[in-house]
User: Fold this.
Amino acid sequence: MKPRHRARQVALQALFEIDVTNHRPGEVVNARLVIEQPALSKDIADFSRRIVQGVILHREVLDTVIRRFAPDWPVDQIAVIDRNILRMAIWEIAVGQTPVKVVINEAVELAKEFGSDASPRFINGVLGAATRDDVTLSQLVSTPS
Assistant:
């Protein structure tokens, strides 16, 4: 399995826990990284941390984007796993360091691994609509350096 995919898995698991339990993000990520075997390299672990930090920092804006492109689904009623996959992917697209197609493919793969049977199609549809829109996601989600 590719290292960045593993980093996204760790970030998704951490975001799921944070979303459901309101545990402290830093502690959750660190705990997830400790149990990850084989251990992630420092760069890949830092990538997981950046995803979680970015999603937590920009959750309101990310949820606004989700509401815009999934208008039939109130964000709080979207399955927790799907909601966090969407948040991660939208944040990563906004950051612009990974090609959009790669981000969407990774999100769909995470949906296949962790979501329901309908999750991959839902994730792909929302992200596809969001990336076809005239609004540049990076304008909506400003990222700290």
Summary: Helices lie at 3-21, 25-35, 42-57, 59-69, 80-95, 100-114, 119-132, 137-140. The chain has one domain: 3-140. The radius of gyration is 14 Å. The first helix runs from residue 3 to 21.
